[in-house]
Amino acid sequence: MNESLSLHRSIASFMLGSLGVREKEVSLVRANVATETIRQIPCVVGVFYHHRDVKVAIAQLKDAGIPMGWIVAIARDYRRYDRSLGIKISDRFDEQLLDIAPGDRMFFYKCFKQGKSLVIVEGEENAIRLAGAIMSRRRGHSEVWYM
Fold first, then answer.
1. N or C end of the chain: which has fewer CB within 10 A?
2. Closest to 19 in 3D by CA, of 114, 136, 123, 112
3. Pairing of strands 71-74, 117-122
4. Which pTM was predicted?
5. What is the count of structural domains for the chain?
């Protein structure tokens, strides 16, 4: 399993470089209040300009083997998306869906208010890199941030 993820990470790195995509890296640290420990959870956020690009990206994430339970889509007209895929879909920018730093949250909120759709994938780091590379394929139609 780890060898497969390592291969996916290598493919994602190659694809990002060959496409000239800039990685916008931000570290996300969440505090676990119960144990008072801090852990880092990898996450990637794709900002899309049109619902068709979101649908294509979600289909490609599914085809690549990214677990659908790791994906959250935030879009104005959530009825356009297939709920049977198992992704979480919301038509509201709910702060509980984006457990990130306040400044980053405000940035993504502004994107949503401008009519853009968000796709958030949270999970293992190698799979997150692959998800980011997949979402970056929509050149000129999406932006991707690694958290």
1. N
2. 136
3. antiparallel
4. 0.70
5. 1
